[in-house]
Design brief:
- The protein is of the alpha/beta class.
- It folds into two domains: about 140 residues, 3-Layer(aba) Sandwich (Rossmann fold), CATH 3.40.50.12710; about 200 residues, 3-Layer(aba) Sandwich (Rossmann fold).
- It is about 40% helix and about 20% strand.
- It contains 15 helices and 19 strands.
- A hairpin with a 6-residue loop joins β1 and β2.
């Protein structure tokens, strides 16, 4: 193991008991004992290990300027306010139900939820009175932060995982923002006219390295066959089977409602055919910059891959969802009323500085070539409608 990995500080258990050994050390022992593991399993541990996964570590600054990335809710309150406006319109489309569930999957520290709740309370009291906001978040640390942030709305917020629901929610919206890109992926490569999978093994010095092997599941070949894609020789790509399972789960719950998915992605033909993506889309972030080595420092850097919208859309349709639209985020926000919401928020601005921040945030959301233009919004409706 390299010096860098050896000096990672050990985690302390939640109960204050014995220290948990560094994740890199535990992963290394797992590989040494059982042999190379799929990158999907390695990434799942790096991001979601109970004690040291990137999204589950306590006290780690993940969001904002001090962290590794900033999502739209942290950049401007207009993002959540505009989606709240959209949710209110969906409430009307659903016939103003007595109970209206909004489920946010991967809610992080609660910034989006707070914006939605605050906006609905002020601007759409009918929807707010019927609202039951379900906050789904894997990280206990993030849940604790969100609970503090959402304390004024505690009577309307339930912290619960999506998989814990056994029956459909009826009139509901299941929403996620930058969730699918953080689900673990398999990594594959075309070699000698065959599909190979990239596993994670150990270097002689103890570091991690890529190892080619036979695919771990026939679902990988089935994925490309379904898409009608044959990877060209030497090309590397990612396949997120977990995304299909997440969409199927959402479809079961949203039989009487909507699924709204925000992320950055591309169609399968572009992901698997564009020359600039010959090495795939897998990347790691640390301190708002690309990290040099995806396999370095597991648990200490964000890892992500571009979403395959063809796969997600078709998985939803197989599960009973009807595709309503797939469009760039800036176009969606404009259609959902971002400019009207900006005017409304401006009336409540407490100062010229706050009003200026709102206007700058609006520009960032709709400016050609800006952040929002690189994201997309997939809207789907449940089979009960």
């Amino acid at each position: 193991m390299s010096d860098e990995r050896r000096t990672v500080s050990p985690e302390v258990s939640d109960a204050g008991g014995p220290a948990v050994r560094p994740l890199a050390e535990r992963l290394g022992e797992r590989v040494a004992r059982a042999g190379a593991i799929t990158f999907r399993d390695w990434m799942a541990a790096a991001l979601y290990d109970e004690h040291a996964g990137y999204y589950r570590r306590r006290g780690l600054a993940r969001w904002g300027r001090a962290g590794d990335y900033r999502t739209s809710p942290e950049r401007t309150p207009l993002f959540a306010a505009t989606f709240a406006r959209h949710f209110a319109s969906l409430f009307e489309q659903l016939g103003r139900p007595r109970v209206f569930h909004v489920v946010e999957a991967g809610g992080g520290a609660g910034h989006f939820a707070r914006g939605v709740l605050r906006t609905l309370e002020r601007d759409a009291p009918g929807a707010f009175d019927a609202l039951r906001y379900v906050f789904d978040e894997a990280s206990e640390d993030a849940r604790l932060r969100a609970a503090r942030l959402l304390e004024p709305y505690a009577a309307r917020v339930e912290f619960r995982r999506l998989e814990e629901f056994e029956t459909p929610l009826g009139a509901c919206v299941i929403f996620s923002n930058e969730l699918l890109d953080a689900l673990p992926v398999h990594r594959v490569r075309a070699r000698g006219g065959r599909l190979r999978e990239l596993y994670v093994g150990l270097e002689a010095g103890g570091g991690f390295k890529w190892v080619e092997g036979e695919p771990s599941t026939p679902r990988l070949a089935e994925h490309f066959a379904r898409a009608g894609v044959a990877l060209e020789e030497g090309r590397t790509a990612e396949v997120c089977l977990d995304a299909e399972e997440w969409v199927a789960r959402a479809a079961r719950l949203a039989q009487g409602g909507f699924v709204v998915t925000v992320d950055y992605g591309a169609e399968a033909s572009e992901l698997y055919g564009a020359p600039h993506r010959r090495d795939g889309t897998l990347r790691a972030f640390s301190g708002h910059a690309f990290a040099d080595d995806v396999l370095a420092r597991p648990g200490e850097q964000d890892i992500t891959a571009t979403v395959n919208w063809t796969q997600v859309r078709e998985a939803g349709e197989r599960a009973g969802l009807r595709t309503l639209s797939l469009e760039r985020q800036d176009a969606f926000l404009l259609r959902a009323g971002l400019l009207e919401q900006l005017e409304l928020e401006g009336r409540f601005a407490g100062s010229e500085a706050e009003l200026m921040r709102l206007r700058l945030g609006a520009r960032e959301m709709i400016l050609p070539g800006g952040m929002a233009s690189h994201f997309q919004v997939l809207a789907q409706r449940g089979s009960g409608n």
